[in-house]
Amino acid sequence: MSDLADVAEKFGSLVAVNLRHFEPGWIESVHFEFVNGSLQVDVDINTDTINWGLGSATKSPLPTPREWVDLLSGRVRWIWLLTNQRGFTDALQMEIAVDDGFEYVQLLAEGSRLVPFRLKAFDSRK
């Protein structure tokens, strides 16, 4: 597998999320485990850009941190690589379909670490 589109089109439901820390509060990689494959996102410490790789599903993934549990069993509908004004691909974003709607997760490479965000839409009805 070599195409990021496979995450949305072939990987199926999310079964686990694992974070690798350099030290507390310093995330160096995030591993998303799906029914039919896996996505690992990390940061290139020399350029503060996103690296990603796809792989096979893991037979027994590690437990998911509680902040990520409500994403489990969701499916990625859309996935983006984000490029800043200087041409560096320094973030990855996913729209994940969950039971009650959609969640938007963004991983930003900043200061040689990954900063995870959950994005929330503005309420345009006001």
Structure, described:
This protein is mainly β and 126 residues long. It has one domain (5-119). The protein has one helix and eight strands. The chain has one helix spanning 5-9; strands at 14-23, 26-34, 37-44, 49-55, 75-83, 89-98, 101-110, 113-119. The strands form two sheets. The chain has a four-stranded antiparallel beta sheet, with no helix packed on it. The chain starts with a helix and ends in a 7-residue tail after the last strand.
List the keywords.
126 residues; mainly beta; 4-stranded antiparallel beta sheet; 56% strand
Shape: globular
Biggest sheet: strands side by side, in what order?
A: 1-2-3-4
- What is the end-to-end distance? 44 Å
Number of DSSP-assigned strands: 8
Largest sheet, strands/sense/barrel: 4 strands, antiparallel
Task: Return the domain count.
Answer: 1
Global Rg: 14 Å
Short account of what is shown:
The chain is mainly beta. It has one helix and eight strands. A four-stranded antiparallel sheet has the order 1-2-3-4, with no helix packed on it. A four-stranded antiparallel sheet has the order 5-6-7-8.
SSE blueprint:
Blueprint: H1 5-9, E1 14-23, E2 26-34, E3 37-44, E4 49-55, E5 75-83, E6 89-98, E7 101-110, E8 113-119
Antiparallel strand pairs: 1-2, 2-3, 3-4, 5-6, 6-7, 7-8
